[in-house]
Amino acid sequence: MQPQTRPPHALRIAAVLSVLSLVLLALVAARWGPLTGADRDVVVPLHRIALDHPGWTRTNRVLTDWIWDPWTMRAMTAVIVLWLLLRRERTPALWVVATAAAGTALQQGVKALLDRPRPHWANPVDSAHYAAFPSGHALTATVTFGLLLWMLKLHGAPAPWQRLATAVAAVSVLGVGFTRLYLGVHWPTDILGGWLLGAALVAWAVATYPVIHRAERKSSSDGRVRP
Question: How far apart are the two ends of the chain, measured CA to CA in Å?
């Protein structure tokens, strides 16, 4: 594994995603009228569909509560870390842990900062706690699958495995966003915020990891620490 060279444009991608995240955060904080109106235009008809199709609604609840739940994503992250530790790759393992922990801290901090109310329904089909922005489900799934794809690429996994993982990641990240909207517990901008913040965090992790890796190798004098 040769992670000394960062992927092309990694810093630029991280910076662009960060700017987009900050712009969206500012618009949500300002309660910009066109944005809140667009949010409502999406969730109101979806809520009517959820009420009219209880079987499909139950399916979405299973997907959001079990398959794509943040704790399921954290368990997947733990498997990645365990695999890296078994390979004696302590630096990547620590970097995965640090990125995942930063994602949790980021979403909780932004939620507390904005304290955005969730959609309110007289006849809800699901419930959720804490503030709405950003979606913790969307952010956690984005970070988890982003880290998985990064580790596969970093270790030179066969192309078919990378393509399969990319397809699963795309379905999962988009799917969890849809389930949260369909169940009426988030606004569309909550989902978009989770995606952008999660992607920005992974992009910064990818962009800065080579620096951490070189520093770790330089400080290791016994030659026993593997990348």
Answer: 7
Tell the burial category of 222 from Cβ atoms under 10 Å away from its Cβ (0-12, 13-18, 19+). Answer: exposed
Check whether 81 has a pLDDT greater than 90. yes
Angle between helices 10-29 and 188-219 (to 10 degrees): 140
State the pTM of this model. 0.92
Residue 142 vs residues 23, 64, 80, 145, 195: alpha-carbon distances, Å = 19, 14, 15, 6, 6
Q: Measured between alpha carbons, how far is 193 from 222 in angstroms, rounded to an integer?
A: 44
- Cα torsion 12, 217, 153, 148: sign: negative
H-helix segments, 2-89: 10-29, 33-52, 54-62, 70-86
Gap between the Cα atoms of 191 and 184, Å rounded: 12
pLDDT for position 6: 57
Contact residues for 143 (Cβ-Cβ < 8 A; gap 6+): 73, 99, 100, 103, 198, 201, 202
